[in-house]
Design brief:
Strands 2-1-6-5-4-3 form a six-stranded mixed beta sheet. The protein is built from three helices and six strands. By secondary structure, it is α+β, with helices and mostly antiparallel strands. The longest helix is centred in the middle third of the chain and has 14 residues. The radius of gyration is 13 Å and the shape is globular.
């Protein structure tokens, strides 16, 4: 599977709020960082699944709309609008940098 295919599946699963489609794309040791302060917010696949599960439960209208995607080496950089997060339907801009190794997402850096 290519990086482009992995990101396409991940985005469709995110917009469908489908944990079962999403989690096979992540490595067991996935790390998620807050870009602005480099704070580690998720330290493994179990924590990642719990993060998405809570987000999906609290955000029935969650939707991400890609503005631009850049693929570079093992990275996918997505500039996107996200709305419906925790009941807030305002479109908010964010950038997510996905790092992919061995066809799994192993790191995400999120800039809000």
């Amino acid at each position: 599977m290519t990086i482009e295919e992995i990101i396409d599946i991940q985005m469709q699963a995110f917009n469908n709020r489908s944990i079962t489609e999403m989690m096979p794309l992540y490595s067991d040791d996935i790390k998620v960082y807050n870009f602005s302060d480099h704070q580690l917010t998720v330290n493994n696949k179990t924590e990642c699944e719990e993060m998405f599960r809570k987000l999906f439960e609290q955000s029935p209208n969650l939707h991400a709309e890609i503005i631009k995607t850049i693929f570079f080496d093992t990275k996918a950089i997505l500039h996107e609008y996200v709305s419906g997060r925790n009941g807030d339907n305002t479109k908010k801009e964010q950038v997510v940098i996905f790092d992919i190794e061995d066809q799994k997402i192993c790191r995400m850096d999120i800039m809000r």
